[in-house]
Amino acid sequence: MPQGKPEYVPEDGLTTRQRRNRPLVMVHTGPGKGKSTAAFGLALRAWNQGWPIGVFQFVKSAKWRIGEENALLALGRLHEQTGEGGPVFWSKMGEGWSWIQRPGTEADHEADAREGWEQIKRDLAAETYRLYILDEFTYPMKWGWVDVDDVVAALAARPGNQHVVITGRDADPRLIEAADLVTEMGKVRHPMDSGQKGQKGIEW
């Protein structure tokens, strides 16, 4: 099967192989469904390549057990047992993040979001993962909990070969401008428009 040729080749001095292998910042945004699902599909491909994967969920409740979480964590356990694929780390803001414990029961979502981002910056500096999925991360930026310019600067300065996927609606224009790949998902029709709800355990 013949391979397609790009319409435009940047004058950046890189070979095709170097350009293909460079790390990317990817943004999945827009009002349509499937932004997180597409990111988790990419995580499956990364696991198959043996890449370490870090998933950070910034909005979804700790009580929600989505299918992709169960599947990817099962693949992480398979890696631990057999060496197949890559390791998987999954953490949620709704759980107060897995690496910190705060006294009291009242959740401070803004502080949790900032702490999540600070941990991601530490991981980027240490090159902890090959693929990062920052799920629903556009919202802490939109709400002013996390500084957009700090995000853009940290992503631009990340060392090594680390890919980052950010999902969520209303991505900031500065993030879009800094990203290598931006996909906007638009809604044409949705079952809920006619009152139909998703099946139990399946989100659409």
Automatic annotation (TrEMBL):
InterPro entries: CblAdoTrfase_CobA, P-loop_NTPase. Pfam families: CobA_CobO_BtuR. Gene3D superfamilies: P-loop containing nucleotide triphosphate hydrolases. SUPFAM superfamilies: P-loop containing nucleoside triphosphate hydrolases (SSF52540). NCBIfam families: cobA, PRK05986.1. This is Cob(I)yrinic acid a,c-diamide adenosyltransferase.
